[in-house]
Structure formats: structure tokens, C-alpha cells
Write a sequence for this structure.
């Protein structure tokens, strides 16, 4: 069972739950219209379904053999990538001045979901190029832009993002890679681990974006600078950087994860991006975009697993029922898969709309407020979506029964692939800490409270719709919003105490469940309003009555759950 | 990081939470004493840790190559198995008349956890032999027992359990393998899939326990008979059964999962076990025992993943903290892992005690009541423990961060291995249906209500202990018991309606969380009582305040969650 991009679902969520329709009507996107959006989605859906999806299993089996410093990508991958770039997909949201199409980030988010639903190992490469484009565009000097930006936008060259070192994972400030000033540029020496697409044969050049430390730099994150280090230098010679090895991973086998070595021959030539010692700000630009994209990987793999399981459940006969989808327990699994996927999708797309508004809204105040909204939602989009990616893929195996455990079926690959997304681009624990310590306190809590008010308006709309098919949706979502509000208020009062940090992960889940549930309800309302004949209220109701109801226990876990943490270390050591 | 069997934890849970201490005091086990129990556990722990655990990674990499109908087990496996059997572990709980030691099933359960914590792929083989011993002992005629039982008990030969066919998975009644009467015995033709250890080189003979259908048998499960089909016949000739292929699976690579073919040369010779057409009763004897054992696999792999993560978290430095265990979010993960594992362990061992009482208690009434208790707990022991096996293994990856996704670390193997246990021996969905449709209604609900009363007594004991370290434990557990009682009452009133079936999975989780939480509290009470100096109250409190609190939402999901199910099929098909 292969993947078919769910284009009409995607379009519906984008327009009605995430707010693209309103944004278009307000003129945020100039003269862009719905028809253009629909045709872009349809075209992306075709490419993802017809060209990329069939490569997913080949990629898993072939992997990325590493020999004499070079990585071979699986059969068919280079052509698929080249054609994909030539069709302009890499530059969909990139600046028009540099060859991009400058279409909405929210639309690009929908496309990123499709590339990754088709193949996570394929989709992650361009995510890093797009992040590199953002950083270079925002912070690079004109010379660097002239040399590199056009080719990164077109996808002729790909980019990488290099933070991690053995002693510096979540703690970026501990990195040791050195940069020394030389001939007006820099020489980079050291090594990096876990570098996605650090070496490969898809493009002739690879542009590495590398965090390193100058000899006279302050300690910690305030002494880090960002450098552009091309694999091939402008004069055509090979730079002093190489892949040393490729990891043997649980999944995304076709995405080469490399250990990189700098400075075998005295140091790789690096070009500074932004100012010395201000590299973290540049890197955060890259990371925020990449975090949303990784959230979309979670959505994509969840969608693929759901399609796979649904097809199996409709076909597989067992016992007196015609097919196993008739069994209530199987329906519970499929409804859980379908609605978690839809909830995560809506959150990610809404984050994309907030990013667009932060760049395109008419007033400074609107742009600032949208920027804060995007900041608030990004960790939720990343962590909630990737957590549910693994959960949905696991349910996908379960629906298949014994067949799900056999690799040939493909369900197991989704399970293996999905698991990375909760780890890279900042583990989900780091996302939860970011949410609790930096995002909830934004503007003294105004940002989160405004968002909660919006969710409450959705609850009111469901209530006043009086549509019987909603069942207890309004009541349950209302309780969830109450819980989110209480937990947020409690966190704001706590500041970043250990008790607050202990509740970070359940708080993020509470946030995701509540926001996702409200957005599914928005979709159902839009479906009733537009009379499109779909049964979205079934999904909104299932989610409210079976998933959003976790709110009260999550709230308690946040506000009352840390009592045993103080003595935990001693107890665990026994 | 390898596995060290947690012998003292295991002994504590067995004695204080599962009730071995009381059972010993009551004389249920004759003159067996605690010292003997302790020394058996210590010896099993040594063998599991020192001999089996080091084979786990080798087994994963080597797998079970299949060539010309034969399966090769990984290097070192045959010696480890042979020595294990020679030490008497296979017959630990088997009848003394046939060479077993007739020790408690609860003690055997603890040992099964250790074999599987050391290596799930190793541990699952003997599970099936033990199940075969039970069926043969209960239903076989004297001649078959003379020929086979002693060698199965000693482990000189291993057994298999053969139900599944391509069209007959969870629906056993649909099986088509044929048995025809011939020369006083039977000839078996057909094929079976997903046969664990169906072919291997650990033992000279393999004794297959095969479900098949006689030509004149009634349809469905009432027309199924159980046959003993040895690989090698008593005259030394090869029987007409062979492995046709071995599956390529997500995990437990060293456990050969075979497709078996019967009747290339006219039919395999089979010997009837029990009566014709009464095979399901025999098979249930095997399955119930195997279900508890698979639950113990979940406990074992969860324990191993917890040890692995804990060691990493205590060693890995990141940021200003000395090691990542100091971070509250990491502690939350480790506490979740540790307490879910402990809860599942206690439930499984308590099931073992109930099995022992069902066989050894002094009066018929006590034995009957214990049998019902074992019947009630078995699906919970299987499904709750294997669900948390996967969840804990997933958290184990997360604690490792990027290192967890690299296969060399070993955390990923636990995640891959763990996933099968929720599927085989009856999927966890089937366990939940069994619980809701057959076990909760036992004796008109008396069985489950008696159990709930017992849980309530634990809550009262925590309350009256007035120990401040319990925090809100009593309150939260009390609420969980209330929820379990309400949900049980609701299910009893519903009978097996679709709405009841829809809530089966959340009900089972509610049951597991509540029972597990109370048993962790029993351990904490025992720890305070005995003054053993451990911090078990930390675990009881964490579980009550962070996991048992899910009870109210699980209860609602059971009693109010099915509203959207009726329209689900149409909605999912859109």
C-alpha cells in the first residue's frame, strides 16, 4: 500500500482550521487566490504520490552505503530530487529576488507534509536546505548571497545544519569546533556528529552551515559563530571537510547521518554569517523553521500510517464481520490515528499562517503579535506532531496484527522512521522546556492567553451551532480549555521552578490536545457551514470525547505531579 | 550496557505486592520457604545476567538464517539453551512426576521475566515449551505422556504452538489445516504461519502442537482438534512437516518465525490430544499460560530499557547539571519507566499467585475463586504489560536522545523487540475484548467486584498510614478505584453491546493503572513496615499522582466515548 497525498483534506485544514481563507480575504498574500493554492497542492500531491512515495521502501532497504568518503543514495533518488528541484518545489516559499516563488509558508508547510508523507528520508534533506536559505537570506552578506543563495533556492546545491558534537547535544553552548581568522576568512577545525545529509551524491556541492567558536570567544552560547562552509570552494577545489562515517540507524535509512571532520589539511575555509559570536541568533532562525518542518514529518508519517492501516482494515476479513474495520476496537484505533493526525496537521499549518502573518501583516503590531503566536506554537507543532507520529505508526502496526511486525508489509518502516522526529531538531523534552520557560511567559502571558481566548471562541461556536452530531464536543473541549488556562496560569506564577519544569511535557500535550481538538471542531463547523457533505463532526466528536478528555489529568500532572520528584534521584539510584 | 536481573526488586514484589509471603505463611506451597525462593531467584538472576544477556545483541545481528529447510540459531545460543535446560529451569514449575520441580508458577513467572529481560528472542522459545507441557499434562493420554512429557519438561525437546493460518489469525475458528484418521492416528496436511521456533537447531526434536480440522468436524471453533506432531517420529524417521520460510521481522530477530508446511508426502503423523473437536479447550490451557508469559516479556524488556536509560542518564553530562538525570523532564521519563515496569511486574506476579492458588488452595471454593481471579487478571497481565513494554522502550530511546536512534547503542533493539508482545498470543485488542466480554461478567461481576474491594483496602491502608511521603497517593488511588468500579458497573449493565466493546481498550488500561498503582502502594507500605530503607513511596506517589490520575478520563472514554463510533465507518471511508 503506497501513499496518496490527501490533497483535499490538506486544503480543507489549511483554509478552514489554520486560517488561510481569512488570510487570503484580508489580502495578507496580495493577489494570491484559492485556485492557485489548490493547483499547487494538487501538483505537489501528484509528485509526492507518484514519484517520491514509490522510493520509500527502496530507500529503506538500500540505505546510504559509505565508501572512501562518499555516500551513494538509493537507486532513483537522484533523478527524483533533481526533477523535484527543477519543478521549483525547493524555492516555493523562498524570496522571489533569489529565484523563489515567495508563496505562503503555510502552503509550503502543506507541501513539506506531503514530501515527508511520501518518504521521511527524502523529505528531511530539503528541510535543511530551506532552513539554510532562511539563515543566509536573513544574515548573510551580499557576496555570500550572490555566490550561494540562488543555487540553494533552486536546489542545485543542498544545505546542512551542523550543531551537534559528542559532548554538545541539547547543550549547544558546549561545542568545541574551532574557527580561526585567516586571510580575511576563517579556518574551521573539529568534528560534528549526527549531520543529516552531511555527504551525498544528490548535488554537486553541499553547503554546510557550521557552528564554531573563535579563539577569543566568550564561553557558552554567547561565544558561538555561524559559518558557511562549502564542500567545493568557489575556485572548484575541494574544501577541507569530509564525512568520516555514516550511522546505522533504526529508521530513515536513506537519509545519510554523518560524522563530519574539519581540518585534515589545516582547516576548512569558512565564511562568517552575521556577526562574530552572534551565531546562535542565526541558528535559531534555521532551527525554528526546521522545527516546524520536523513537526510536519510527524504529520506526514502519521498520515501515511493511517492510510496504510485503513486500507488493511477495510480489506482484511476476520470472523463473522465482513472486514475488521467493523470491529469497535479497530475503529477506535483508526479514529485515534485519523484524528491525532488531523489535529497535528492543523496545529502545524496554523503555525505556518502565523509565520506568514509575522512577515506579511500590514502593521508592526500585527506582525509582532503574529511572530509571538508563531513562537508559541512552534514547540507544540514540533513535539506534539512528532509524538503522535510515533503513536499513530504504532497503532498502524497494531491494526495489521502479526502482518504489521513483518517488514515486508511496510507498517514497521513507518514505526522505525517516525521515531527520529521526536529526537532531532531539539528533543521533545527541549521543546516542552522551551514552551514552559520562554513561550508561555511571552509578554507576561498575554500571548498564551490570547490564544486560549481564541480556543474558547471555537468552543462557543460549537455550543451555539446546536448540531446534534457534535454530542458532548463543546462540553469536553470547554473543559480542556479550562484545564489549559489553569495550567498556564499556574506555570506563569511558578516561573521556571523545578516543579514547573517537571510538568513541561504533560503541559505540552495538554496544549496540543486542546488546540488540536478545537481546530478539528473548526473544521467540522466549516463543513456544516459549507455543506461539503463530509463527516468531520465524527472526528471532532471522537477527539473531544476520547482524547481531549485527558485534559484534567494532564492539568493535575502539571500542577500537582511534581511532589515525588525531589526524592526521585535517590530512589532511582537504589 | 547489559542487563542485570533486578533480583531484590523482583523478590520484594513477589513477596509483598503479589502475595507470595502470605501464600507461604498459609502453607499453600507445603514446606517451601522464603530462603529457597530467594536462592532460586538469585541463581536465575545470575544465569540471565551472565549467560543469556550477552547473547541478545549477537542474536539481533545474526538472526536465524534459513537454508535448505534448516534454521541456524546465533553463535552461542545452543550452548546457552542446553546449559539452561540442564540446570532445570525449563521444568521449574512442571509436575514432579515428569521430572519437574513443581515450584510455584509465581516463582516461574519471576524467572520468565528474567530470561526475557536478558533476551526476548531467547525467552520466547521456552514459553511455548512450557505451554505445551501444560496441555500435554492436562489432556494427553498416558502413552503420549510417556513418550514426550519427560523430554519436554527437561527441555531436551522443545514445543511449538500452531494456530495461525493466513485466513485465520484472531479468528481461530476459520482454520483449514486438515486431519484425517489413518492407522489409529491422524495425517495432517495444510500450512501454518507465524510459528515461533517452528524450526531450529537448539534441540534434536521439536514437538509441534497443531490445531486442525477433521473431515466431519462441525464448522468454527467447535470443530477443531489438537494434535501432537513431532518433527522426528518415535522410529527416528523424519515426519512430513517442514519449515517453508522464515519471516523478516522488525525485532526479536533471533526467534525464528516460520511458515510450516504439512503433507508434502501424504500427511504428517499426528497424535490426538484430548478428544476430537475439543481442541480449543486444550489450546486455551496453552494460551492462558503463554499469555501471562508474554506479559512477562513486556515486563522484562521494560526493565531492561529502564536499566539502560538510567545508566545513560546518570553518566551523560549536558549543560550546567552534573548529569542529565538532574533535569526534571528526564526524571519524569525515568520515573514513568520505573513505575510502569513495577506496576506491570506486580500484576503479572499476582496472576502467577492466583494460578498457584487455583491449583493448590485447600478447598474447592478457594481454588475456584483463585481460578476466576487468574482468569480476570490474565488479559490485563498480557495487554497492560506489553503496552507498557513498548512505551517504556520508547522512553528509553528518548532518554538517550540521538544516541538512542543509533542501533549500536542497543536502545533501539529494545524498542523493536518489545513491539511484538502486544500482538502475539492474542492481540491486545483481543485481550481487552476478553476482559470486557468474558472476564468482567464472571460470576455476574462478583469476581471483579471482589478484586475492586481488595484494591480499596489498599487505599485505606495508605490513608491510615498517615505517612507524609505518600502525598496525595491515597486520594488519587481512591479516585482511580472509584473510576474502575463505575466503569465495571457500566460494562456489566451494557453486556457485550458495541458501545461496551468500543471501550474495551481504555477499560483495560484503567484496570492496569489502578491495580498497578495499588500494588506499588502495597510495596511502599511493606517497605515502611519492614523498614528496608528503600524509597518505594516515591514510586507509589509518582504513579498515583501522574499515571493513576488518568482514571477519570479513561472511565469517561469507556462510558461516554462511543458516541461517534456508529458513523465512523462512513467517515473513515471518505
Amino acid at each position: 500500500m503506497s501513499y496518496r497525498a490527501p490533497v483535499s483534506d490538506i486544503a480543507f485544514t489549511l483554509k478552514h482550521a489554520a486560517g488561510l481563507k481569512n488570510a487570503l480575504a484580508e489580502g495578507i498574500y496580495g493577489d494570491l487566490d484559492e485556485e492557485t493554492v489548490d493547483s499547487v497542492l494538487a501538483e505537489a500531491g501528484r509528485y509526492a504520490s507518484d514519484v517520491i512515495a514509490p522510493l520509500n521502501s527502496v530507500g529503506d532497504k538500500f540505505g546510504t552505503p559509505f565508501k572512501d568518503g562518499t555516500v551513494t543514495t538509493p537507486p532513483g533518488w537522484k533523478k527524483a530530487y533533481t526533477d523535484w528541484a527543477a519543478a521549483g518545489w525547493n524555492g516555493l516559499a523562498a524570496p522571489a529576488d533569489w529565484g523563489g516563488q515567495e508563496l505562503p509558508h503555510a502552503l509550503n508547510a502543506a507541501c513539506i507534509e506531503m514530501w515527508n508523507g511520501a518518504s521521511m528520508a527524502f523529505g528531511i534533506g530539503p528541510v535543511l536546505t530551506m532552513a539554510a536559505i532562511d539563515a543566509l537570506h536573513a544574515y548573510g552578506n551580499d557576496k555570500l548571497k550572490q555566490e550561494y543563495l540562488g543555487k540553494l533556492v533552486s536546489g542545485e546545491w543542498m544545505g546542512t545544519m551542523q550543531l551537534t558534537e559528542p559532548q554538545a547535544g541539547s547543550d549547544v553552548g558546549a561545542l568545541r569546533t574551532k574557527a580561526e581568522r585567516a586571510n580575511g576568512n576563517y579556518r574551521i577545525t573539529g568534528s560534528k556528529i549526527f549531520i543529516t545529509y552531511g555527504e551525498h551524491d544528490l548535488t554537486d556541492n553541499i553547503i554546510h552551515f557550521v557552528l564554531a567558536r573563535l579563539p577569543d570567544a566568550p564561553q557558552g552560547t554567547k561565544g558561538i559563530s555561524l559559518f558557511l562552509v562549502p564542500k567545493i570552494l568557489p575556485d572548484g577545489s575541494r574544501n577541507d571537510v569530509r564525512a568520516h562515517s555514516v550511522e546505522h540507524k533504526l529508521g530513515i535509512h536513506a537519509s545519510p547521518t554523518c560524522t563530519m571532520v574539519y581540518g585534515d589539511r589545516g582547516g576548512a575555509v569558512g565564511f562568517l554569517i552575521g556577526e562574530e559570536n552572534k551565531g546562535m541568533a542565526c541558528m535559531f532562525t534555521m532551527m525554528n523553521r526546521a522545527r516546524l518542518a520536523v513537526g510536519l514529518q510527524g504529520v506526514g508519517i502519521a498520515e501515511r500510517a493511517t492510510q496504510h492501516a485503513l486500507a488493511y482494515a477495510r480489506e482484511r476479513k476476520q470472523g463473522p464481520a465482513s472486514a475488521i474495520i467493523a470491529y469497535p476496537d479497530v475503529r477506535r484505533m483508526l479514529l485515534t490515528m485519523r484524528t491525532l493526525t488531523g489535529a497535528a496537521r492543523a496545529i502545524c499549518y496554523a503555525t505556518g499562517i502565523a509565520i506568514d502573518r509575522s512577515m506579511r501583516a500590514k502593521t508592526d503590531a500585527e506582525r509582532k503579535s503574529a511572530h509571538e503566536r508563531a513562537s508559541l506554537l512552534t514547540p507544540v507543532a514540533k513535539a506534539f506532531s512528532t509524538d503522535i507520529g510515533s503513536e499513530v505508526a504504532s497503532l498502524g502496526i497494531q491494526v495489521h496484527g502479526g502482518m504489521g511486525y513483518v517488514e515486508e508489509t511496510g507498517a514497521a518502516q513507518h514505526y522505525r522512521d517516525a521515531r527520529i522526529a521526536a529526537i532531532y531538531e531539539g528533543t521533545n523534552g527541549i521543546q516542552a522546556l522551551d514552551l514552559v520557560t520562554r513561550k508561555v511567559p511571552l509578554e507576561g502571558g498575554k500571548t498564551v492567553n490570547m490564544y486560549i481566548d481564541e480556543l474558547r471562541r471555537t468552543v462557543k461556536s460549537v455550543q451555539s451551532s446546536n448540531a446534534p452530531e457534535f454530542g458532548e464536543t463543546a462540553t469536553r473541549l470547554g473543559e480542556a480549555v479550562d484545564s489549559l488556562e489553569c495550567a498556564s496560569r499556574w506555570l506563569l506564577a511558578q516561573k521556571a521552578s523545578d516543579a514547573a519544569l517537571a510538568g513541561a511535557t504533560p503541559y505540552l500535550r495538554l496544549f496540543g490536545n486542546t488546540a488540536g481538538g478545537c481546530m478539528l471542531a473548526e473544521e467540522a463547523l466549516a463543513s456544516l457551514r459549507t455543506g461539503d457533505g463530509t463527516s468531520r463532526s465524527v472526528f471532532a466528536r471522537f477527539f473531544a470525547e476520547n482524547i481531549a478528555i485527558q485534559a484534567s489529568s494532564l492539568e493535575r500532572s502539571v500542577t500537582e505531579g511534581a511532589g515525588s520528584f525531589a526524592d526521585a534521584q535517590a530512589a532511582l539510584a537504589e
Q: What stands out?
A: The first helix of chain B runs from residue 7 to 17. The CA atoms of residues 319 and 327 of chain B lie 10 Å apart. Chain B has a mean pLDDT of 96.
